[in-house]
Design a protein that fits this description.
The protein is α+β, with helices and mostly antiparallel strands. 26% of the residues lie in helices and 25% in strands. The longest helix is centred in the N-terminal third of the chain and has 41 residues, at 10-50.
């Protein structure tokens, strides 16, 4: 789920404008604040007085990826006593998820009460119909449209492009319009943040300082370890007299006409006994032993004209001998001095950093790609997830204590990431287990479920009889044992063509002949038809030709058998026209793939490759997934009250919370209240 997004140089431009505009607005707001505050407060008071509610607070604990089958198992074994008590006193049911059951899609439905055709999020990324290249589904990040040349500089003019692509209205905006204050912490698809009556810290899809969804750096003296991988950049360094001199790369310097990445010097001095190293960067010096993370370290980039851009990262020495190996986490946006708006109000991120200390701001904070690519091992990954979880927990309870009424939500990602990377340990026959430790990590997932039980216990201790507590997940989990490359199947069956007699194609459809291609797959769950008038080189006409092609693919791929192991790989293919009715239906994939448990779009299919084989074993650490038929991976719903349905849906949560506060439910919402 670590798609690398566009806009790598955006951080500098945005920081230039944000701080200038913020200063001007601050003066204006300071002068007019008493009048605006009094007016808004009176309006909200009038609205609040018109509604009646028997509750004073709703608290939602989001546990991304919590699976109902595992939850039942651990409750039955007595390992989740708080969840068991909540079930007995209130409600526990599977929660129907979105289609496709992917985090950005599901969380968007959670907050808006509508399906993807109304909120416009269908996957982590989609294709640009004019270029066939991937683009991030959640946000558009770009440079200022105009610049003024000034010597060696290009001074940006105009507002940089920063646009949230999720449509529809989050329910906490509706609460705010009726006088209910909300605290929203790390809910996915809230970047860039929207204005509302409350405070918000953005979650999944917040970029790193480079504008990507998370790019680590790896430094090694072993040239054989220098690879061209997806999730980061590998650097070969030289060791001389126990010293290494290199640099850390930051965002693109768009202030300079000649461009180029911003860099800061990095020097490492290894002790004579090879037991520790002294790291020097940005006038900071600290010692680090192998297999130990540094605290968050501030990195300052200087593009020119006296300007500074700051980020934070952690250092981890994998080994000092025989080869030097250093992992540097993606450079997170500095919460103290954000280069991009990551919270509402803008200063809220800074407030939280003063309240809790430095914290990770990257949307996908746990570096699953670094583990996938062998840059860090299981132990270092778990250390990373541990300190990120502790940061989130500390922040949540600080916010909860300051939210005696209104709405409060916090989403915890750790359970999702741990299950992605260790689900193989629940199945001894998983192909990813080959050459990897199983016994040592067999209880990792269970341990985090137990940890969430203790989290819930603390939440319930803070809840009175006028507080409604919900615990929910966006989807469940299943094994990911076999990858399916539908682009290869399309090529082998005449639906996709390659140039110059090629039989394979590189990332992002590099060698595809679009003028002879009718169907292709990109992302985790969608099939696109190369439609005339929509795609740049579309060849399939709307009407009968389009419908006949869809029906042909549905017939051939529904019930698709993996002949190598004699198992059904695809349960069904669904035409999105029959599923969606909203205004953004045209932006959806033409067909959605309902994979069986154990299967998913292969890594290569997700990035637009054509490979030799349709099926392949998944041997990566990323061994569990949920991009399958949504009936296989429902989420969970716990409530400290009884509810009126036996089959709740994730779209039901928004209207339920609105109703709890005595506010009329908008007619466009597809979900129905369950309390």
């Amino acid at each position: 789920e670590a798609y690398i997004g566009p806009g790598a140089g955006f951080a500098f431009i945005s920081s230039f404008f944000i701080f200038f505009i913020t200063f001007c607005l601050a003066v204006f707001y300071f002068i007019t604040w008493p009048f605006r505050f009094a007016f808004k407060a009176s309006v909200r008071k009038i609205r609040r007085n018109k509604i009646k509610s028997e509750i004073k607070r709703v608290v939602v604990v989001g546990l991304d990826g919590m699976d109902p089958k595992l939850t039942k198992k651990f409750m039955k074994e007595g390992k989740l006593p708080t969840f068991q008590r909540l079930k007995e006193e209130g409600t526990f049911l599977p929660l129907s998820t979105s289609y496709p059951p992917i985090s950005p899609v599901a969380w968007s439905s959670f907050m808006t009460g509508v399906d993807p055709s109304y909120h416009n999020i269908f996957d982590f990324f989609t294709r640009n119909p004019r270029t066939y290249l991937p683009m991030l589904s959640s946000a558009e990040i770009g440079k200022a449209s105009k610049v003024i040349p000034l010597g060696k500089y290009n001074i940006p003019v105009g507002k940089p492009k920063l646009k949230l692509l999720r449509k529809s209205k989050p329910f906490w905006t509706i609460l705010g319009e009726n006088g209910v204050f909300s605290s929203v912490i790390r809910v996915p698809i809230t970047f860039p943040p929207e204005k509302f009556h409350g405070v918000l810290l953005s979650g999944m899809c917040v970029p790193d300082l480079k504008g990507s969804q998370g790019m680590f750096s790896f430094y090694t003296t072993n040239g054989a370890d220098v690879k061209n991988e997806t999730g980061g950049v590998h650097y070969q360094v030289a060791l001389k007299d126990n010293m290494i001199d290199t640099y850390i790369c930051g965002p693109e310097n768009t202030l300079l006409k000649e461009g180029g990445e911003l860099k800061v010097p990095l020097s490492i001095k290894i002790s004579k006994d090879k037991k520790k190293a002294e790291i020097n960067i940005c006038r900071q010096s600290f010692e680090l032993e192998p297999e130990t993370y540094s605290p968050w370290i501030k990195i300052t980039f200087r593009p020119g004209l006296g300007m500074k851009i700051t980020g934070i990262c952690r250092f981890y020495i994998k080994s000092l001998t025989p080869d030097f190996e250093l992992y540097v986490s993606p450079i997170n946006i500095d919460p103290e001095k954000p280069a991009l708006p990551i919270s509402y109000p803008f200063i809220y991120a800074t407030y939280l950093s003063k309240l809790t200390g430095y914290y990770g701001t990257l949307g996908l904070s746990e570096d699953t790609w670094a583990l996938n690519e062998g840059v860090i091992d299981e132990n270092s990954f778990l250390k990373q997830t541990d300190f990120l979880y502790k940061e989130r927990e500390k922040m949540f309870f600080k916010v909860l204590d300051r939210s005696p009424k209104g709405f409060c939500v916090c989403v915890f990602d750790t359970l999702d990431r741990v299950q992605h990377m260790f689900f193989r340990c629940l199945d001894k026959n998983h192909p990813a287990n080959n050459g990897k430790e199983i016994k040592k990590y067999k209880n990792v997932i269970e341990d985090y479920y137990v940890r969430t039980d203790k989290l819930l216990q603390r939440v319930l201790e803070k809840a009175d009889d006028k507080t409604v507590v919900m615990v929910m997940s966006d989807h469940g989990f299943t094994q990911f044992k076999r990858g399916v490359n539908l682009n290869t199947w399309f090529f082998q069956n005449g639906y996709l063509a390659l140039k110059d007699g090629k039989t394979i194609s590189r990332d992002w459809f590099k060698d595809v002949d679009w003028k002879k291609t009718r169907a292709f797959s990109l992302g985790l769950a969608g099939i696109f038809i190369n439609r005339k008038g929509r795609e740049l080189h579309g060849i399939v006409n709307d009407g009968d030709e389009l419908q006949n092609l869809k029906q042909e693919l549905i017939k051939k791929l529904s019930g698709f058998i993996d002949q190598d192991v004699r198992e059904t790989a695809i349960r069904e293919i669904t035409d999105t026209v029959n599923m969606y009715s909203g205004p953004y239906t045209a932006d959806a994939p033409d067909l959605l793939i309902g994979y069986n448990a154990g299967y998913r779009n292969s890594w290569e299919c997700a990035t637009g490759q054509v490979t030799k084989s349709v099926f392949e074993d998944n041997i990566r650490h990323w061994s569990g997934d949920h991009a399958v038929d949504p009936k296989i991976v429902p989420g969970v719903l716990f409530v400290n009250k009884k509810i009126n349905t036996g089959s709740p849906d994730i779209k039901n949560i928004a209207p339920t919370i609105i109703k709890l506060f005595g506010i009329p439910i908008p007619s466009y919402m597809k979900g129905k209240p369950f309390i």
